[in-house]
Amino acid sequence: MVCILIAYLVKTGRREALRPVWMGIALAVVLSFAFGAALQFGSETLTFKAQEALGGSLSIIAVGLVTWMVFWMRRTARHLKKELHGKLDAALRMGTMALVVTAFLSVGREGLETALFIWTAAQSADDGVRPLVGALLGLLTAVALGWLFYRGAVRINLAKFFTWTGGMLVVVAAGVLAYGFHDLQEADVLPGLTSQAFDISAQIPADSWYGTLLKGILNFQPDPTVLQVTVWALYLIPTLLFFFAPGRVSPNRATPAASPSDRVAPKEPEPHDTQVAVPGARHTDVGSGGDGDTERVHDGARREGDAAGGVEG
């Protein structure tokens, strides 16, 4: 989104508007970091059960936000650039403050969702370092890809990009949702904490490198409860089927189908036009394309003009 906004201003020669746009982006980033810090340090003063209840509730909210986001991005991917350009044009007409607000809202919404999702993932991993390192690497990758996209070195098909990244996010969100329900079970909000669906800790130890990798990426747990597995399956399977179902992407608004009212009106006949019928000329006078046909058309046009002007007598 940042690349689309900045590239549009540069290409249209409106570099003076870059400062308020960057200001709005900076405010959105600061708000996202402040929200993440409030989640982290605010939860440390709570009791264990209150922390688990808060973490579980926020995990469910984060999954809801991410699910809404991936479906929205999938649906609007083809005309996202045009939509942002339209908002930016409207903000340019309104003034500097409107530019700041436009950039702030465009980035801030995604920033808050990202902060919440990273916090819930870090809570479920019980490791405050490695999830943050992964988040930092992801942000640096996004910055690098954004710069290449802006310079024209990389061209991205937004429809395909959001389809596959959205599908992967749905898989990750399923793990976060399952762990959120586990937190609620530990907080005694939901029952069934001791009812395990299976236990494969011997085959996939939680402290092994592959167990840690599965935990960090998919929130995999080798000894989940029955409720966790049920919630995971009930969310993942229908959501993926609905997400990849045909017709989930809106048609390109830039090329709407032509309506009957948009059709080009027939050309009005001109006296010098040899390819259209002239009032007063016979149908046999037009169409063969020969020299004789051309003369008869001009004769018909002259006769029509004489009749309209009258003859002096």
TrEMBL record:
Residues 254-313 are annotated as: Disordered. Keywords: Membrane, Transmembrane, Transmembrane helix. It is found in: Membrane. Residues 264-273, 293-306 have a biased composition (Basic and acidic residues). Pfam families: FTR1. It is a multi-pass membrane protein. The chain crosses the membrane at residues 21-41, 53-71, 128-149, 161-181, 225-245. Its main location: membrane. NCBIfam families: EfeU. Belongs to the oxidase-dependent Fe transporter (OFeT) (TC 9.A.10.1) family. This is Iron transporter. The lineage of its organism: Bacteria, Bacillati, Actinomycetota, Actinomycetes, Kitasatosporales.
